[in-house]
Amino acid sequence: MNGPQTSVLILADDTDFGRTIVARWQAERVVPSFTLLRSDLLAGASLAGYELAIVGPINDGSMPAILKALESHSGTAIFATSDPVVRRSLRAVHPRLLMLELLDGWLDCLVLLGSEVLRRAEAEARAAYAERAASAGRRHATLGCYMLEMRHALNNALTSVLGNAELLLLEPGACSAQVREQIETIRDMAMRMHEVMQRFSSLESELRIGEDGLEADASPRPDAVVSARSS
After folding, report:
1. What CATH number is associated with residue 76?
2. Is the pTM here over 0.85, yes or no?
3. What's the structural domain count of the chain?
4. Of all helices (H) and strands (E), which one includes residue 172?
5. pLDDT tens digits for range 33-77
């Protein structure tokens, strides 16, 4: 099953920059969703939903706002520029930024680097999901073990409730019609709880049989062992 599509934000005041990247990325096997944004529209925009941000040619006055937004961005950011002074200054102040020089072949390099970044983001997301699922499974297993351990104690308590309810119902005229109706409700609900506990026991047996079957399938057959030795 495929996970959710990754998202890439392209920040550039040169519209051809973003369009060129999108057109080139279309040739790849996996294509993320793209959002193209000018620097003057960055105010108030959230970068939280983007696994990758690519910054291209922008107006000098927009640099502080863009850097501030990237500082709070938990994903990866690639800054593409041909100015060596800008690269050195940004690398010194923002070491998390990936710097890309706009030389021949920069587009292929950008797509390759961006694809690797997105693959890593997907792997991390899958690992986080698996960890959450495993944690939930451990919690459910602990709860299930506790319920199985308390099954006998609860059955004993239900037997006592049922027995006393039946004794009260066997004495005609001992209770008013309203009280008798309430006792019958207690008995019926206790019976339903008993049926639920019986289902727990049945489910435990079914799971144990399934586990035994898996272990039997995983164990080598005697004839297979003999055949392997003879060969």
Report:
1. 3.40.50.300
2. no
3. 2
4. none
5. 999 988 888 766 677 788 899 998 888 778 878 878 877 777 888
